[in-house]
Amino acid sequence: MGEKTKGEREKMIIVCAHMPKSLVEKLDELVKQGEFPSRSEAIREIIKDFLEEEGAEEEEEERGWEELEQEFLGEGWEE
Known about the structure:
Layout: H1 21-32, H2 39-73
């Protein structure tokens, strides 16, 4: 996915979440180290990466089933 221009950015909504203090402190440390510009950006990026990874795993699993199906059912086999 490419970067969106200012006019194309998706509308942001506020989401409140309760987190353990230790998790927030780790998040703040990442911001302090310059890994992310803010807590909000860190949370957005972490969730986005997680969802993209999950989607890739689902696609890979689907391809795997298709390959197995082709291997076992291939030409000459009927379901």
